[in-house]
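Quick one:
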Amino acid sequence: MLVVCDTSPISALITVGRAGLLAELFGEVVIPSAVFDELSAFHDAIPTWAKVVDVRDITKVERFSDVLDRGESEALVLAVELGADFLLMDEKAGREVAALEGLQVIGLLGVALRAKQAGILGCPMKQLLAELESMAGFRMSQELKSRVIMLAGEE
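Output:
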């Protein structure tokens, strides 16, 4: 399965020490150069399994620049170019554009639920959500948090 990843989901997982979940769940994880650059600005090490691939259609990337940042734009265009199974992105504007481009989008919480279902999460969902909030600054409503915990079968 091929997944193209935007910066924020992989950055949050690196911060809480669980980036390996992406490789375990999806096998091939691709990031565009802009995402690599953004990750490098905040993290000392980028997972070696994250394959960096350059976007070919820079004109299309520029077309999205009014709405999205560079990493989101490149991730979206690369997902289209590679025919990715999923685009991993959390930002609302990016998800909306991705849907218009016909991409299947999954967010960080969707990844967490898949990891829980696959038995590879390694901790209770409540703990992961707390780590994401406190360590990575990941924001989610109480309603969403409760729903994810319920879907994980923890309440």
